[in-house]
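Long-time lurker. I teach an intro course on protein structure, and each term I like to show students one example going from raw sequence to a predicted 3D structure in token notation. This year I'd like something fresh instead of my usual example. Would anyone be willing to generate the tokens for the chain below so I can use it in lecture? Attribution to the forum is fine with me.
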Amino acid sequence: MNKYGMQAMRHWKTHAPQRFQLIENPTRFFTELGLEAQGQITELARQIETTPASVLAKTASSEQTYLQDVAHRMTALRIAEEVVMQQLAWVSDPSLPLDEARQEWNQTTPNDENLIMWAERMQDAPDLMPSTVDLEQKAKDWAVPVWFLEGLVEAEIPRRYLEEHQSLLAEAATIRFLREVY
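-- Reply from a regular --
Happy to contribute to a lecture. Here you go:
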């Protein structure tokens, strides 16, 4: 179990002991949660590092030192950790009733807008298209079929593509929510 899984487990033991007791296999649950967090943190930190404003600030000074570069990367990592862990593990009351937990989950989890931004990024830079393994992992993470992600990238207007597949997205959201709850 990585550090993110251990942090989440400690948090749940402290703040939601009854819900923690309901988890059949806490080691597996928090190992998977930690791996999911790590993947999302890595991706978000990379995105933060490569945002146009960040790249511009980095290249504005041709005398970027090694320490400045490390500081830039560490800042991106810390921001990503804070954002992802807030969404995945630091729920304020993980022992909420299921309907309230779903409402909180809907408000705090990455939404379909993230898929639109991802598809637009792939369209703008087709050479960044993930490998088959990465695409399969993204499909698994979002609980959607691979063909859906491929169609999203190929769509002329990704937002319209998502609107046309709302039932599939609603089902995927339910699957992701249940994964987190159980």
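Some talking points for your students: The mean pLDDT is 80. Residues 151 and 178 are 25 Å apart (CA to CA).
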